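Reviewer 2 asked us to include a model.

Predict the structure of this chain.
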Amino acid sequence: MPRNHGETNGVSRRDFMNTSGAVLVAGNVVRKEQQAGLSASESPGMPTYSVEIEMKLNGASQKANIDTRTTLLDLLRERLHLTGTKKGCDQGACGACTVHVNGKRVLSCLTLAATVHGKEVTTIEGIGSVDELHPLQEAFLRCDAYQCGYCTPGQIMSGIACIEEGHATGSEEEAREWMSGNLCRCSAYPNILAAVRQTAGVEEAVDPASQVLSLTSQQAREAVS
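Predicted model (structure tokens):
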């Protein structure tokens, strides 16, 4: 007996459409949760497992009871309200969420908060103050090493680590390579590199723009003639 054209491998067209619709609905729910910035512990219909952690955060003891799936980034921003650390790609590709754990730079969006129990965490809020900026923060201002500023906290945290690791005192290429994990969508890379190398002491502490040759319109015409 010929197979019904509305069935494929025993699955009716109606069943196939119903299943496809359920998958699409589930996908939309996940996307809406992500867009709303919900943490793992806020996802509906999922079993939760909590753990209490204690860490030294910016020099002070900090305890928190968290869902075991919570990332360090979400703990800092959503629970502890330290919003200087930015959520960019949330996939470990842009570096906007860079913080220090035991003095090493890490991507907080890929770090489970439970793994920093008993460790020392430093965020952008912990490296300086309004009255006393960190030398790299001063260099960023001097070099105009920011545009929109969204990537700046991660760039500064990565830059501090780059200097402490000894990668900023070699060639420009070496420093650029060790800062390459931090993206700047405004393309302020030359000024960011200058700020890092000036703070490391291998370049003069001046505004890079002051070293740009300015030409009058007459000089410019003569230069191209």
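The helical segments are 13-35, 72-79, 135-143, 152-164, 172-178, 189-200, 217-224. The first strand starts at residue 7 and ends at 8. We have added this to the supplementary material.
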